[in-house]
Amino acid sequence: MVVLAGVASADPAPKPINMKPHADKLVVLKDAEGGVYVVMNERDDPHIFYGRGKVLYDQLLEGGRGRDGDAWNISVTAPRVEYPFMGQIGYRKDGTFYRACGNKLTSELTQLTGDKATEVIDKWKFLTTSVVRMPYLLARDDRGVYYYVDVLRPIYGGTGHRVFVGKKGALKQMTLTDVVTDSAGDVFSTKTGDLRLVRTFSEDKEQKTAQWIRGEKKRELIYLDIYMNQSLIYRELGLYKIPQTICSNI
After folding, report:
1. Between residues 127 and 7, which one has the greater pLDDT?
2. Contact criterion met (CB below 8 Å) for 125 and 57
């Protein structure tokens, strides 16, 4: 589970998934470091599971699937790699499997068959994603102080916003007292101030600004796109432990 470094978490635990009814559709793979991958390459319901120690977590798929004859690939969210923040599991025309992390790192995977594959499918635990939370808002001021909000993923309820303020590697969780969300934006009230995300429209294009309000003082913040700053969020802010994802060890 993704948890805050140094902050007690009451986040929900990943949920069991029964994959035994799909056993005939599963491909079991292993990398040189002992990581295990289980792939269900179905057009309407693809899944990639990854893990170690007899626990496999469902990966967040991103960017779709590719196919070239018998060869195929499935893209996976991997925010610790460089843009476009994707990993990939693929099958080549020569019958080999691979894992790619971004555009620079590719590792060969070995297929497990027979009793070894059956043992993984029958005896390992299959769970929903270990990435329990997702970014919601990111901004900073001109002194390098970051203002960050995350929230539970929809599969875990989609609520429970948290607010953090501080410099890289030293953000502190603020005590949240109220959340207001409407068509104009969001206001996250804490004991020390209000973090406000304002949505405005210009020539039919949505624009976003952020402000930190403390008493009568209002500080305009630089709004940062959370997708383009995934590497900053997951590597530099220092909030999250490394989750069980296919490229988390790079």
Report:
1. 127
2. no
